UniProtKB/TrEMBL annotation:
GO molecular function list: ATP binding; corrinoid adenosyltransferase activity
GO biological process: cobalamin biosynthetic process
UniProt keyword annotation of Chaperone present: no
Keywords: Transferase
Listed transmembrane segments: none
Superkingdom to which the source organism belongs: Bacteria
InterPro entries according to UniProt: CblAdoTrfase_CobA, P-loop_NTPase
PANTHER family attached to this UniProt entry: CORRINOID ADENOSYLTRANSFERASE
Organism ancestry: Bacteria, Bacillati, Actinomycetota, Actinomycetes, Mycobacteriales
Record-given protein name: Cob(I)yrinic acid a,c-diamide adenosyltransferase
Transmembrane recorded as keyword: no
Region (Disordered): 1-20
């Protein structure tokens, strides 16, 4: 897209402004590194633009505290204390979803994932956030823990102007078809190929 101009302008009856401000559904998938990192970068832009952010991590262990989580907690506090940016909420399945007030369980990840999606769907219906990150949500879909068709239907019918970014490998075809933006991360080279473990500040 040279100079940010779309190559084709659809005859959909919408103005340029309406088309530009339409809610976005994005999917970051593929075997390469950077899917979640890119989503959190988008969330950072959203926060700076005054869009409230909700992050839902569906797979990562509660013990795995990524650097972005700490940063977004501080950004949320900055908003609460000084009115800068926008509100931030961060929820992790591995720690037991915060709204359920029960500890995470290693016994039934499928039930926890379904509970997480049900809460996200409720929030979408009530337009609780402006920008959602459903981190590693493709895995519950791939494993059959959450119904793909129901997710796609809910996302397509979401009211208002709510942006949603979903990350994870092996995104279902139906989800990618429904999305406005699909990016596939392809690994060309990785430090682990040379026996190097992840580094603080790079991997987390």
């Amino acid at each position: 897209m040279p100079k940010g101009q779309p190559p084709v302008v659809p005859d959909d009856g919408l103005s340029t402004k309406q088309r530009r401000n339409a809610p976005l559904l994005a999917v970051h998938t593929g075997p390469g590194k950077g899917k979640s990192t890119a989503a959190f970068g988008m969330a950072l832009r959203a926060w700076n633009a005054g869009l409230s952010v909700g992050v839902f991590q569906f797979v990562k262990s509660a013990k795995w505290r990524v650097g972005e989580e700490s940063v977004f907690h501080r950004l949320g506090e900055l908003h609460d204390e000084h009115g800068v940016g926008a509100p931030v909420q961060w929820h992790k399945m591995g720690s037991g979803w915060s709204w359920s007030r029960k500890p995470g369980s290693e016994d039934d990840h499928a039930a926890s994932a379904a509970e997480g999606w049900a809460e996200v769907a409720r929030r979408l219906a009530e337009q609780e956030h402006d920008f959602y990150v459903l981190d590693e949500f493709t895995y519950p879909l791939k494993w059959g823990w959450v119904d793909v068709d129901e997710v796609v239907s809910t996302l397509q019918a979401r009211p208002g102007k709510q942006h949603v970014v979903i990350t994870g490998r092996d995104a279902p075809e139906a989800l990618m078809t429904a999305a406005d933006l699909v990016t596939e991360m392809t690994k060309i080279k990785h430090p682990m190929d040379a026996g190097r473990k992840g580094q603080k500040g790079i991997e987390w």
